[in-house]
Amino acid sequence: MLSPTPTERAIFQQLQACNTLLCHCVAKMMLLSPATSLCLALLLLIPQTRSTTTGAPAPSTTAPCAPAWCGDLSIAYPFWLAGTHSPECGGHQAFQVTCDNATCYFKNSLWTYRIQAIFYEMKLIRVANTDLLDGACNIEKLANASSVLEPFYVSSEMNQELFFLHGCNLRAQQLPPSWAPLSCSANGSFAWLSGQYRPDDVSMTLPGNCSVSMVPVMAYDGAMGADYQRIMEAGFMLEYFPERCEGCRYPDGVTCRTTERAHRKMTIIGSTVAAASLLVLCICVLIWFLLGTKTMYTTERNTDMVSLIVSYGSLAPKRYKYTEVANIISSLNNKLGEGGYGTVFKGRLYDGRLVAVKFLHECKGNGDEFVNEVMSIGRTSHVNIVSLFGFCLERTKRALIYEYMPNGSLDRYIYSENPKETLGWQKLYTIAIGIARGLEYLHHSCNTRIVHFDIKPQNILLDQDFCPKIADFGLAKLCHTKESKLSMTGARGTIGFIAPEVYSRTFGVVSTKSDVYSYGMMLLEMVGGRKNVKSMAQKSSEKYFPHWIYDHFTKDDGLQACEVTSEVDEIAKKMTLIGFWCIQVLPMHRPTITKVLEMFEKGLDSLDMPPKQNFSQILEDSVYSLDTESRSPSSSTKPQGSFEEINLGNGKIL
């Protein structure tokens, strides 16, 4: 490698001083829009060409950097495990981790930290200072307790302040009630748990001429100064910013190094430094201005959403702080699933109950779906509706805390290769009735009527006893019970389960009958055991799935193509007949969900065969033809209480 000239080295040292100022600006810049972030990032790179573009990063030598495990903690970039990884996997000595008896540690010149959890996506690490766990009365140790070396920073947003006060000249009646005496010291030493962490508070003046030391902590609910030992053992949260060469990391788990050929000498005149410094200052001012505008909008938006949720009084679920949610999930290794909405983790509340925590993506809309879900499910209480324990809304961070369903969602059973051996037809039948009861509760038993709009197997969760619970109310609509139709703009739901009137008003008004259609499609999925959307992709090579199952149902072989044996023939046929009635194209021909439950109670012989719909034409044209291939339902079997038979109201749609 070629060495830089003295001139280059001097200029580089001046530019490095600018980099320290830029560190926080770059981190905050990620909150802006992608386009703005890209433009600002390109500008920020201009004065740093000596440090980052001495040569184009060329992947000349690669080293395997697959994640390593220490106990139940995964060690990955930018951290590297001593004895397992090479230093190239992290690139910074501060990220070196040692493993001792399945416990992770990292050290610097000040302290030794025990690593309790690493949150790679959020660039956070929860640690406990092992040198202070028995040093509450050691004034010399506590003097630098809040000092942390780069590239780590104490998170002021996620930590609180724990003060240790020594040598206080106060009488008992003068002591503030929040001060707790230290058990390891004589009179005059106290512990005090304060509010949000602010590093300047260590210099505050307190009564009694006390010597003040401050330790950052992540306190649990109800913690007090007397709990100082337990609080310190719980640790605190550090933020970290990987080196600028993080972009040199490859997705296959390796890092790259620049070659000697890429190392080219550059001659930089002194005026470049002055111009670069001025540019840096202007960019930082611009970033702070944009961040202030964005933060103000986000704060106002969050305040409006929280006010709307809290306005429902006792019906509103509990609001959690983001630090509390991080403690609930404990580790990001307990991931249950991930999708377009966000990521779900398994966690445990302080009372021991298992929960599922859903973190919504920050870019997911303007918060309407979040408020929708909290307000919809927060006002429900039914055995077939999943329970919402609480929510978190802080800046751009949003999370929902649900009861944990150990058996997952219904789709993992009905779409498996042999689902009937796993659940059995009687269990599927019981699950179908439970889902119908949950829908009846949403449609008719709540003070505010709720239409779900996304009934599908993936949104039906099963508890330890396989009791079904309806989940995911992000697309739900609320209306007063006197209203019989909903005003909507645009379609919502999942292809294959959306009612015709939802994506085209040609078929009728949107109402609770739209959920009945989705429920009917799901019943046929439970009988047929395959995904409806697959049949749509086959186009002309395969019939539309309800059409296909209808043809088999009317033939002599019955439902043998769906693996239905004679022993369970009646159960499968009843579910199929009810499903056919529910997917009638016109809402007025569908039963209400209450009528569906009545049909489940009747015998198979008392259920009439519904007319076959022209399903294929519906998919191709979005225009309904009234031609049917069999008779229309008789007046004796026509579902009663359709929305067209009720006086329509004009109440406000929530």
TrEMBL record:
Ranges for domain Protein kinase: 330-604
Residue numbers spanned by region Disordered: 628-654
Keywords: ATP-binding, Glycoprotein, Kinase, Membrane, Nucleotide-binding, Serine/threonine-protein kinase, Signal, Transferase, Transmembrane, Transmembrane helix
InterPro entries: Kinase-like_dom_sf (IPR011009), LRK10/LRL21-25-like (IPR045874), Prot_kinase_dom (IPR000719), Protein_kinase_ATP_BS (IPR017441), Ser/Thr_kinase_AS (IPR008271), WAK_GUB (IPR025287)
Binding sites annotated in the UniProt record for ATP: K358
Amino acid composition bias (Polar residues), ranges on this chain: 628-640
Single GO MF descriptor: ATP binding
CDD domains: STKc_IRAK
Membrane topology: Single-pass type I membrane protein
Subcellular location field: Membrane
Membrane-spanning parts: 29-46, 267-291
Principal subcellular localization: membrane
PANTHER family: RUST RESISTANCE KINASE LR10-RELATED
Protein name (Swiss-Prot/TrEMBL): Protein kinase domain-containing protein
Species the sequence originates in: Panicum virgatum
